[in-house]
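Troubleshooting: if your tokenizer reports a length mismatch, compare your output against this known-good record of 425 residues.
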Amino acid sequence: MGLVVQKYGGSSVADAEGIKRVAKRIVEAKKNGNQVVAVVSAMGDTTDELIDLAEQVSPIPAGRELDMLLTAGERISMALLAMAIKNLGHEAQSFTGSQAGVITDSVHNKARIIDVTPGRIRASVDEGNIAIVAGFQGVSQDSKDITTLGRGGSDTTAVALAAALDAEVCEIYTDVDGVFTADPRVVKKARKIDWISFEDMLELAASGSKVLLHRCVEYARRYNIPIHVRSSFSGLQGTWVSSEPIKQGDKQVEQAIISGVAHDTSEAKITVVGVPDKPGEAASIFRTIADAEINIDMVVQNVSAASTGLTDISFTLPKAEGRKAIDALEKNRAGIGFESLRYDDQIGKISLVGAGMKTNPGVTADFFTALSDAGVNIELISTSEIRISVVTRKDDVAEAVRAVHTAFGLDSDSDEAVVYGGTGR
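Known-good structure output:
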């Protein structure tokens, strides 16, 4: 008997009918001879609604209490799903993240998983139960407080449990039929990918593809847990994310030269103006940002002006961290010695991802030609062996994604991509 971990996003359990539909799918997996552990997100937009409610009560909610509030959403989902499964004649037990043994650090609102000790889950499934686990949450190893893993954290919960339980596969159920060559909400002719490597999926996730969380893919690669991304609204095969290609019949699915086009409009750009062009200045800037616990993405430094010996350094970061970054830099202005700061949150990032880039000359030229033909101006550029990313104006992102998608022959012959509901999580 194999063990399967299934994760259902908020759109899959958005209402009573959705919960009953998910219960039937879980029971079907049980009837097929599997032990089943299901991880659930909060219903629909519950998490967003709880955040809104907290902000109405307090402009800056305390991290510990916000985690206590937000974890209520998943507890509601898990209990209702367990009830629905029992109504179908099967035994189910629901567990919070802490009861499931998800141990984290002490950082509220974006904790990282340190360990998973799933003794109660293993005992439950060995007794013949279906285990239902609240995603997105755990318990601090040090303070024993409830913590949350950040947005999309249920994906990480599912993969971490799959690794700890030595599951055969982790199935991530969402509201689209798999991983597509672009966001189907932007590119109607996006194609479903049958198989994608962990490396390419990591780049897509880091570049803004919302179907899988970057940390989830990172965890799966580390423990070599195959992920099957599919829709809870259809019975179609989805996308396999793994270290080795899958086989369909007698034919092995080959890796495409270009895996897809991702975009992200959740970042902002900060330009540090008038930085002395001498050793240690960039280090001071980014040490200040690091000490504020802010992650940055793209960085570019201009050539210094010969007359002044000053340069400008620009970098991108999450919009939500913009205010904190500005405050940290201003506090250390004297130590760094810059002239001023410019903040811009009307930017977007477009990324082309594919392992075939490193062996196919001309990809970079074709990428920039497509953007030029679409009249899209480029502000920043960043590359790796399997990715090219550029920053443009936010208003140009959708047109840029469609232009690049078409230029690299990724368009489907028909409108293949179906979005069943929700926002893609």
